[in-house]
UniProtKB/TrEMBL annotation:
PANTHER family in the cross-refs: OS01G0588500 PROTEIN-RELATED
Gene3D superfamilies: Transferase(Phosphotransferase) domain 1 (1.10.510.10)
Gene: LOC108851002
Domain of life: Eukaryota
PROSITE patterns, per the entry: PROTEIN_KINASE_DOM
Residue stretches making up the Protein kinase domain: 1-157
Protein name stated in the entry: Serine/threonine-protein kinase PCRK2-like
InterPro entries: Kinase-like_dom_sf, Plant_Ser_Thr_Prot_Kinase, Prot_kinase_dom
Amino acid sequence: MQIIFRNFKSSNILLDENWNAKLSDFGLARMGPSDGISHVSTAVVGTIGYAAPEYIQTGHLTAKSDVWSYGIFLYELITGRRPFDRNRPRNEQNILEWIRPHLADIKKFKMIIDPRLEGNYYLKSALKLAAVANRCLMVKAKSRPTMSEVSEMLERIVETSEEEASSDGPLMKSLTPKDAFEASRRERVKRRFVEVLIGVNGCPNLPTWSPKLVTSL
């Protein structure tokens, strides 16, 4: 059974007191198309900045529409910015238009990474994450990977990052014990995102949860 979230965005990802990630707000979710049918036709709804271009133009919804939204979310993680922010300069309001000139050069790419990380990240992992995001954001929906393929790519990135951390690479050597613990915690949270947000056969995991202490990203 395939479910199309239709309104996937960072504010629908919640963390409980144990840093377990949960998806919320399934009010706009739809069942995927039946066998032999390419798409579901619906009214265009959702949040500005996340909707796939083909969905906006035609109202045709597929699982690849969620893949586009996930690509936007990945760039939110990388940059620390919202997909659309009217409070920024005009040429920086749309995240895709802002990042595009920075992707061809490593020095320019480093300029879009969330400054709140203060350099505490692995550049190779960030570049790999951006590469996954770029595949999710292919204009032609058929050219985008499935969510199960995205999950596999992210798992490999997480595993590589953990190997770099365990080998006591340059990042960990430069950190104080407190900062090293925080970096390790971020890696655990990132792994939870991968495990919870992406399910088997391209369908999101939909865990039940009790809204006790929950913090929005």
